[in-house]
Amino acid sequence: MKQTECTDTKKKILLQAFLLFSKKPYDEVTFSDLELATGLSRGAILYHVKTKINLFNEVIESSLFSRSSTLEIQIQEKDCLKNFILEFIHNCEVAMKTMRSYGLKNINRAHFNIESQALYYYANYAEISKQWVATEIKIWQQVIKKAIEKEEIIEVDSEAMALVFEKIYLGHAYTDVTSENGCDTELLKRELFTIYELIKRK
C-alpha cells in the first residue's frame, strides 16, 4: 500500500470512528459498525489501529487535542482584539460547517459525548483537558495585553478579562449541547462584542 493511500485510509478510519463515538458509548461501538462506516474489513482497520482502545485514543488525539479555537489565529497589529474575536467566530463556524458536511449537526454534543468517555478511557484526560483550557486562556490574555499596549482598549485586568472571554465561549459550548444545531455563533459573537464595547477605548 502506498504511503498516501495508507494515510488517507487512516484519516477515513479516524473520521468515521469520531462520528461513531460521538453518537454511541465506547463499549457500544463495534467493529461491525466500523466496517459498515468505513467500507473496510476488520483486518484492514486493525492494520492501522491495532486495537479498539488504540483507535479511541487516536480519535481523542486527532479530534480533541488538536482542536483549538485560538492557537491558529494570527494576532494582528491593528485592532488586534476585535480582529481576534472575528477570526475566533469564523473558526467556530468553519468547524461546524465541516462537521455538518459529514452529517453531524451538533459538534458541541459530539465533543461532549466523546470527552465524557475520555474521562474513563483516556489516561490523565482530566488534567490534559485542564491544560488545554489554560492554554486557550493564556492566548486570550496575550491578545488583551497587546490591545492595551496598542490603546485599542482601556486598562483592565488581562487575566480576569481573558477568563471572561473564554468562559463565555465554554458556556455556549456546554449549554448548546442540547440544541439542535450546536453553538449559536451569532449570539456568541454578540456577547463577546458586548464585552469588547465595554472595554474599547473611546
Describe this protein's structure.
The chain has 202 residues and is mainly alpha-helical. The protein has 2 domains: 61 residues, Arc Repressor Mutant, subunit A (Orthogonal Bundle); 133 residues, no CATH class. It contains 9 helices and no strands. Helix 7 crosses helix 8. The longest helix has 25 residues. The protein starts with a helix and ends with a helix. The N terminus is likely disordered.
Keywords:
HTH tetR-type domain-containing protein, DNA binding, HTH_TetR, mainly alpha, 202 residues, Homeodomain-like_sf, Arc Repressor Mutant, subunit A, DNA-binding
Briefly, what is this?
GO terms for molecular function: DNA binding. The protein is an all-alpha fold and 202 residues long.
| Basic shape | elongated
Distance between the termini: 62 Å
What Rg is obtained from the alpha carbons, in whole angstroms? 19 Å
**Main beta sheet, described?**
none
Can you tell me the number of structural domains? 2
Strand content: under 5%
The tally of strands reads 0
Which consecutive residue ranges, at least 5 long each, have pLDDT under 50? 1-5
Q: Kindly state the mean pLDDT as a whole number?
A: 91
The structural class is mainly alpha
Helix content estimate: over 70%
Order of helices and strands: HHHHHHHHH
Helix tally equals 9
Indicate the topology.
Blueprint: H1 3-21, H2 31-38, H3 42-49, H4 52-65, H5 80-100, H6 107-121, H7 125-149, H8 158-175, H9 185-199
